[in-house]
Model the fold of this input.
Amino acid sequence: MDTDRLLRELNDFLRIPSISTSPSHDADCRAAAEWVAAELRRLGCDDVQFLASETHPVVWGVGPDVPGAPTLLVYGHYDVQPPDPLDEWTTPPFEPTVRGGKLFARGAADDKGQIFCLLKAIETNGTRTRPRINFRFLIEGEEEYGSRVLFELLRHEPERTRADAVLIADMAYIAPHWPAVYTTLRGLCYAEITVRTAKSDLHSGEFGGAAPNAHEELARLLGRLKTPDGKIHVPGLYAAVRRPSKRERATWKRLPFKEGEFLRHRVRAKALTGLKSYSVLERLWALPTFEIHGITGGFTGDGAKTVIPAEATAKVSLRLVPDQKLKVVERQLAAAVKRLAPKHVQTSVRFLHGADPATVAVTHPAFHLLDQAFKDVVGRGTVPARAGGSIPVVPALGKGGAPVILTGIGLPDDRLHAPNEKLDLKQLWDGIRVFRRFYELLGARA
Ligand code: BES
Ligand code: MN
Ligand code: MN
Done:
């Protein structure tokens, strides 16, 4: 493998700050889409299009046609999460840098580096021929904020998902040297909760002691929504939660996962939290969450200002698990906020984006081929696991009946969405080989 050239090409992709949530990066998202489109053309796709191009375009690629060969739909996303806090990066997020065999950059693992593996695995050279597969590509630029456009697109054009299998590499091994295939993804319900307590801010000396304070009310409200024992007090929330079978939970005990190690090396905090009567894996994979992402309002500038804020807003989200439904949870959260706020406090809940949880049965023959490909290349097959994260379009991609293969070549310590995101170069080169082997095995089945 010409690793120097490949690394140069990946770095070109990683240098594009395609942050989909901030409008100031719209042009960068388009540039990343162009990078993907050019790559698809180079790989021989005879039909490359930008779909829904009024936002960050969905890059669609087809072909070339291989009569009688299986059809594989490859999904990925070229957008990335904002890189802040910037001063915690050892080298800047959009200046990819190799240190100690690891490539540091925003998007290195999520998901540009992984798309790169899926694409480069198709490349031919003097001796290697193109896999006998009818490829379809759906590479979007809105995954990191809810995939609204692709979702709508697939609702109107479900035939785009017609394939023998869908392949997604946007996840990680569950431990070094332990490739995985995922059976569930959590869903997501992202909301802004705003409380208003007065017409305007008030002098805290003139009014303090007698006037309501929006931040205080918001803090109390959030404190009621989730109590220190980890329980979420949204009526009805747990009703649809399907507990994993005893058998599945027993298999988790054999996974290379140690709660103490997870606390010390991954979380790096003083203690784990959540519902103590459930194992950590069950809390991460099979129970809903409620997280506060940030709180704004009042005075947060330099220095000091004595004011009673009239309004405060919290960005929050719930992760959802099978068989919860986004639409139901939205209603439940809105009702809970109304119920838990005192009468003198005006509340509103605005939903920003979300996703239903996804469940995949990993029994289709295509999963055996992936297992075999990992065995052949890295010496160990895939273990079934669950994922705590979300990929909003997964349920829609599976609607046509094709098995959705959720896997990845990242490692658990890649720091997705956080400062110093990285991808180990060994994972990158192995990843290309694994997918190349998978394509070869799949193509041989025609
Ligand atoms: N690649 C992740 C999803 C993921 C991460 C799955 C780790 C399994 C393990 C994806 O890019 C992601 O971050 N999704 C968002 C979706 C949301 C913004 C709608 C997420 O999970 O927060
Ligand atoms: Mn991703
Ligand atoms: Mn992500």
In short: Residues 244 and 250 are 10 Å apart (CA to CA).
